[in-house]
Amino acid sequence: MFQPQPDDFLALLQAMPLCVILHDAQTKEILWANNAALAVLGFTLEELVPLKAPDMTAKAPQYRRSVGLRWLEGAARTGQRTIEWCYRSKQGVEILSEAVATRVALHERDVLMVQFRDISKEKQVERDLQRFESRLKAFMQDLAEGVAVLDADGNLRFLSESALPLLGGSQDDWMAHNFLGRCDSATRPRLEHHLAMQPPSREPYSVSYQLQRLDGEWRWHHATCRYIEIEDDLVGHLLLFRDVTEQVRAAQAQRQSDQKLEYLARYNAMGEMALAIAHELSQPLAATRNFIEGALIRLDREQKAEASAAWGLDSAVRQIEHASLIIKSVREYVVKLEQAEQRIDLNELLGETLYFISLKAQPSNVRVELERCDEPLWVSCEKVLVGQVILNLAFNAVEEMLNLPEERRLLRIRTSREGGSARLAVLDQGRGIEAGAKERLFDGFFTSKVSGNGIGLALCQSIVSRHRGDIWAENVEPCGAMFCFELPLADTPAPPL
After folding, report:
1. Does the pLDDT value for residue 127 go beyond 70?
2. pTM value?
3. How far apart are CA 197 and CA 333, in angstroms?
């Protein structure tokens, strides 16, 4: 077995990169230093030996000679002590070090072997990390979003401070709960699906779920998620989530409002048409009654009146058929109360509403002129709702011209293509729009009618906005007003096979 010679140990000490200084265990005076220590401190051995702590130590209070002596004395008593010590070189350079003093019994005397190494870079890295951690913590606290890491079973591996206002309770409380277990049964499968994927997908994904806070309140969250692995220390699905409860409730309220709007529009349309239909049906039904009564009278007379009776009954049948056609038109216009969006030609929809516009216009001797676009104007819309807009604008125009001279009672309706939109314009020859009234036309409170509440135009605006369109009004020369709305054009449907 190899055994180093006594001189070999000195050679080993001199070759060590670790700095070594020997102190007398009793007096604490410097006895010797290896080459590494001399190189770091910038002294020769002869210069170093007579030095005291103040001569080679930073001047900060924590490095006073008394502190150093207590450290060395403690090592002499216990065998070993460690301290963070800042040496100062001959050139004045401060060397922050981790120093370990160990008592060693030599032949001549007991010594304290001080081994030290420069930890300045380590301390700088530590300070940088602490500063970064402090900043990150401050940023996380100010986030409106919460951050969580879930394992495959939905247990929390990490939860940010910013998440606590969103979840309620303390961090310790939540770490003891299963995150998935707090989600409702309807939305939980969305998260479970991604957490259970084997192998987990590293592609980011978005998910919405409803979660019960620890105080019992249910809240909606929207999260952006991604699978992460951080040096086997933090593995799981990272969730960056925010509270969207108010947005969800607003959307629900909007859907309810849209449903109310839809029903209002349909019943409003039916009300307008019912007035016109009641007026129109009264005439054929009255005529039918008269024809039948006349036929009965003729049948009570001599047999020579049979031809006249037949004529009367035939006329009655024709009038009844006329009334049936009116009812059929209503039935075809309003097929059902629930109506989904469908692709329809705006020209065709105008044609379907023309009958009811005529019923409104004819008693007032208002002429109706159509100028339809030469090409189909395909739009995606709810037929009854957009039809209601056309009827409202046309009926308003008719009512505007009731008291005008008959030659001015002209209603013009035209359709056109304007860029990527389909436009329908209703023009009258009435009084026009008063100055300053344009901004209030569609607010639901403005009306120029003697009796009316202005709801019609507000309803039109709501319907058009719902269909991603625009509606406006302007005066035309020499007199009258034009009400227009535009809807985005849809793709042209494929021709039937």
Report:
1. yes
2. 0.41
3. 51
